[in-house]
Amino acid sequence: MKALVKAEGLGKTFTSQPVTSRRLHLADFAWRTHRCEPLWALRNVSFEVAAGEMMGIVGANGAGKSTLLRLLGGIGKPTVGSLQMHGRIGALLDLGGGFQGDLTGRENSILASVVAGLLKDEAVERLPEIVRFAEMEDFIDAPVRTYSAGMTMRLAFSVAVHTKPEIMLVDEYLAVGDLAFQAKCNTRIAKLREAGCAIVLVSHSMDQIREQCDRALWLRQGMVVACDSAKAVATFYEQEMREGSLRRTPKISSRSTNAGAELLPKENRFGSMEMEIADVILHPGAKIGCGEPLGIEICYECKSALKSPIFSVSITQPDGTVCFDTNTQSARVPITQLDGTGCIRLNIDRLDLAPGAYFVNVGVFDSDWSHAYDFHWHVYQLHVEGGSAHKGILAPPCRWAMDLRERESEVNGKFLVGTTDG
Amino acid sequence: MSASVINRSSHEHAWRHLADLFSVLFSRDLKILYKRSSLGFGWALVTPLLQLFIFSFVFRHALQMHVENYASFVFIGVLVFGWFQGALSLCGGLITGSKSLVNQPGFPLTLLPHVMVSVRMFHLLIALPILFGLLWWQGIRPAWSWISLPGLMAVQYLLIVGLAYPLAALNVIFRDTQHIVAVLLQLIMFVTPVFYSLDQVPPSLHAWFHLNPMVGLIQSWRDVLLHGNWPDALVMGKLLAVGSMLLFVGRRTFVNQSDSFAEEL
């Protein structure tokens, strides 16, 4: 396959002075002098993306992912190195950012399509398809300012993927619309790939990288740590993140939970402790019957204000097998900023786990999962009790039915043989 | 052979796309200006009419200005200077207010000043019929020299775009630019004979006044429309040279800076 994107030894510097003081240096403007030490935002980055290939870019905040994506889009020039882009570039960078609130969805779509590189005739021609994809038929003639954030994003996404790009730059499109629409987006992205579009995707979700990308590039402080198959890079990255949490775990003394379990740093407790999980309370208690509801209340304590932390809860068996895992990010719980103390509660309507011993693991993470603030692993015990003896993990309500067709049907139809219910 | 054909067609495509971009951005700017007002686009006509009324009343009756055909005299000044002032007061925010376009791969930012200056020029164009009506009403009939008006507008267009490029780029790294420009425009308005005639200025100051390109332009417009004269070739030639040089230097500054726009925004 032909390489559509080819980067060799890319490097980009920024001047290290803070912007506020630099603004006054008009000399920079007139003579383009740089009297301060350069700061490398990217250094020696080389890779290729072939037609139909999808390349993931991973890394912590500030690792240079966005800078790289911008350079690929021709926004700014690399300080050193060469970059070749063969084909029309489409971008999902700032979804809906160019929309004008007072103009209608139709006017904005045409404007955005032309700005993205279509001729006006082509834009008009593709509009019905764009509107249909965004499911906006009823609102397209209303001003965009009346749209919800989700509607705006849907329309913007639809415009971007319908401009027939040959190279697509994507900055986390996960957040577009509901789950059904996300599935549609994924299908559309897959179609673009089949049509030979090279895609570069920045993502914090290793699951997305594993599922969708062929290869991934891992950046740390502007340098390439790894560039390999997506699965390998995602696994390395996750491992490093876990180790990062371990390294950040400060030396604090162990303490006991209110339930009496011992919390030992670096053994069953990890994290930077900028935010602590003060207590975890299970409702109704640490012993529940199979199929009963379970409430998990996490009381936290912030040392300072933290921006959109993510709470995560999982239930595991003593050997570490994960039975259930959820977090506030995937459930779209809007947490903006937390400070002081408080509680958050996860209500599970019914827990259909097989009887046995489990652990409830709770954690609170940085907004991009780069490290844990506090994570308690195998601390809180949970016993599920139930009548019938099952093997396996699940014990959902179930029943047996038998359809008897014995000789000339002496007995017809279905009838119940037995019932087990939690 | 085939390569050159493809090359030409892709060139043609690029130009067509540029023209389409211009037209959608142009109509966007116009729509944004008037969409939510109840009078809508009518404001483009009503504003100059009201200005005409205010200025001719204040200056003729309150300040006893004695200039022949004062209403059309002042209207020409208001329209021509209005284009200059309207465009330059907007050029500061041109890049800083278009973050999404700056971040759009492949978007030609050099188009933005042209769109903005053209939108302001459009306001002048739609007010021209009112001006012609006023001239007719005052007994002035069209003369052949009127066909030089597009030339005057072209020179003024060059001057404004040439100034808009560096100012838009400067405002990205030095946000005080737009405020300074706003104050300077106020000052320039008073040293430009919009409401008065250059004849009322002491002759010793004329040389200084002519450093302001708007002086020559407004005088040429008045010469052409009020007296039926052809514009002064020397003045226009100088302005054309200044305008072209401004455009060349200004555009280069803009292009040189444009790589760092995204970082600074």
Describe this structure in words.
The complex is a heterodimer of chains A (422) and B (265). Chain A has two domains: 3-240, P-loop containing nucleotide triphosphate hydrolases (Rossmann fold); 255-385, Distorted Sandwich (Coagulation Factor XIII, Chain A, domain 1). Chain A contains nine helices and 24 strands. Chain A has helices spanning 19-22, 26-31, 65-72, 105-115, 120-134, 149-161, 179-194, 206-212, 230-248, and strands at residues 3-15, 38-50, 54-58, 80-85, 89-92, 167-171, 198-202, 215-220, 223-229, 255-256, 262-263, 269-270, 275-283, 287-289, 294-302, 306-307, 310-316, 322-327, 337-338, 341-348, 356-365, 372-385, 398-403, 414-420. Chain A has a six-stranded mixed β-sheet, with helices on both faces. In chain A, strands 12, 14, 17, 18, 21 and 22 form a six-stranded mixed β-sheet that branches. A three-stranded antiparallel β-sheet of chain A has the order 2-1-4, with helices on one face. In chain A, β6, α7 and β7 form a beta-alpha-beta unit. In chain A, α4 (105-115) crosses α5 (120-134) and α4 (105-115) packs parallel to α6. The longest helix of chain A has 19 residues, at 230-248. Helices cover 75% and strands 0% of the residues of chain B. The longest helix of chain B has 33 residues, at 2-34. The termini of chain B are far apart.
